[in-house]
Amino acid sequence: MLDKILQWDRDAFVYLNSLGIEQYDTFWSTVTKFPPWIPLFVLIIALFFVKFPKRKAITMILTILIMAAFVATLTDLTKNVVERLRPNNDEELNTLIRILRSPSGFSFFSGHASSSFSITTITVLFLRHHFKWVYLFYLWPILFCMSRVYVGVHFPIDLMVGAFVGTVSAWLFYRLYGLLILPYLKLDHHV
């Protein structure tokens, strides 16, 4: 069963990666990096300070940063335990695919997927009652994940599991914020 899933994963990756068009290489090579998304992060931080009192905004942002560190650590630990080769480093595949980037680390699960989905999901959970359009932020992790197949460095399952881990982590940290931090802020607010 696992062999069939992994074969489907490889076949799906080769097919999706082969859909790449040279004219879009610069776009996808740019989208796959963190720095081009810095304006989005600045917007997210600004929205917290626009909609919440300063202290609450700071605690929300700190919660996101702690969650991001947790997700990055969990991702790195998993990669080092599973040790799945990236497609660009797999000798059976790398002659069949388009490779635009060549990272050396392991593939399972995707840190791009886990980090982008965790940050986006917790941001949406915090801001959804204030901005109906906040769900548009999901364009970032979707493009971010698609770029990883396009540039030849992640299998679809790497991305799906990373997205799942990121989403669940965001929900967990949102709940922890509500249980551990929010009551303290409310108590402090009434004093």
From TrEMBL:
Keyword terms: Membrane, Transmembrane, Transmembrane helix
Q: Which InterPro entries match?
A: PAP2/HPO, PAP2/HPO_sf
Segments passing through the bilayer: 34-50, 57-75, 106-127, 134-153, 159-185
One Pfam family cited in the UniProt record for this chain: PAP2
Please list the GO terms describing molecular function: sphingosine-1-phosphate phosphatase activity
The reply on keyword Membrane is yes
Residues of the Phosphatidic acid phosphatase type 2/haloperoxidase domain? 59-174
PANTHER family linked to this entry: AT30094P, SPHINGOSINE-1-PHOSPHATE PHOSPHOHYDROLASE
- What protein is this chain from? Phosphatidic acid phosphatase type 2/haloperoxidase domain-containing protein
Write down the species: marine sediment metagenome
